[in-house]
Design a protein that fits this description.
The chain is mostly helical. 69% of the residues lie in helices and 0% in strands. The chain has four helices and no strands.
């Protein structure tokens, strides 16, 4: 995956659309994937999980790896 707007990031964003954190996991960012998943699960209990769900999608789509 090369950077923002790449096919890999689009696929990661689509994965995060279905399961928050899955896109980050696909990009190899285990810690961020766990954070997104746990926060979304916790916030869905009070109907605010959609916020983290959107943040997860945007984070996966805009990720730029360090060189």
């Amino acid at each position: 995956m090369t950077g923002q707007g790449s096919t890999g990031n689009v696929i990661a964003a689509l994965c995060s659309f279905f399961i928050p954190g899955l896109g980050q996991l696909l990009q190899g960012r285990l810690f961020m994937a766990v954070i997104m998943f746990v926060m979304a699960a916790a916030l869905w209990l009070i109907w605010l999980g959609w916020i983290i769900h959107l943040v997860s999608i945007l984070d996966a789509a805009m990720f730029t790896p360090r060189r």
